[in-house]
Amino acid sequence: IGNSHRGSLPSNFEIERAISSFYKTFVLDHNVILTEMRGTALTVMHWLIEFYPYLVGPVLEGTANTSTPIEIHVSSDVTEEVINTLQQRDVDLKIEERRLKLSKGLICLPTLIFFYQDYKVAITAFTLLQQHQHPKSKIQNCSMERMNIKSLADLLNQNPRPL
Fold first, then answer.
1. Which residue among 35, 49, 118, 148 is least crowded, i.e. fewest CB within 10 A of its CB?
2. For the segment 89-108, what is each residue's pLDDT rounded down to a tens digit?
3. pTM to 2 decimals?
4. Cα distances (Å, whole numbers) of residue 48 to 8, 9, 53, 107, 114
5. Is pLDDT above 70 for 26?
6. Are 149 and 19 in contact (CB under 8 A)?
7. Helix (H, G, I), strand (E, B) or coil at 10
8. Which contiguous run of DSSP H or E holds residue 9?
9. Under 8 Å CB-to-CB from 93, ≥6 apart: which residues?
């Protein structure tokens, strides 16, 4: 009858495409929100430039809404240096632990949570040895898409904020 091991449920990728389609169709200012969130991400990434920041997750993929955190990955063997850099900006940090899947299995990494320009920001700190290991995406079982500062700035310059 054509049933697969997951029955008739859609895959995570199909769900992600449906969310993206919904936003494009029914949320008229979705592109404005994405542009603002990406602009906020770029600002925070500039603060953390010495830690090789990358934008990841729904804000990059275009499926974020205003309650979705802006996810940024950084690399530093001393997480306290990242914390100090953020504290110099007077952000109120909360530290959590996030589990990510790398090629060698699951790892737990410190994640720094704060609000900036009305958006929740989540900074996950990798070690310098882990910086070139792309975590696996929860949506597809392949490497997570990442974008560096230059690519994000180029993307924002291609799609400037509407007036």
1. 118
2. 999 999 999 988 877 788 89
3. 0.81
4. 44, 40, 6, 22, 14
5. no
6. no
7. coil
8. none
9. 83, 86, 87, 112, 113, 114
Q: Which residues pair with 17 in a beta bridge?
A: none
Our CA dihedral for 47, 126, 80, 121, rounded to 10 degrees, sits at 50
For tokens 């958006």, the residue is 119
The whole-angstrom separation of Cα 82 and Cα 96 is: 14
Quick one: three-class SS letters along 25-94?
A: HHCCCHHHHHHHHHHHHHHHHHHCHHHCCEEECHHHHCCCCCCCCEEEEEECCCHHHHHHHHHCCCCCCE
What CA–CA distance (Å, rounded) separates 52 from 46? 10
Cβ proximity of 75 and 125 under 8 Å: yes
Tens of pLDDT, residues 118-145: 999 999 999 887 777 777 666 566 678 8
Q: Are 54 and 131 in contact (CB under 8 A)?
A: no
Q: What percent of the chain has pLDDT over 70?
A: 79
Q: What is the pLDDT of residues 32-84, one digit of tens each?
A: 889 999 999 999 999 999 999 999 999 998 888 888 999 999 999 999 999 99
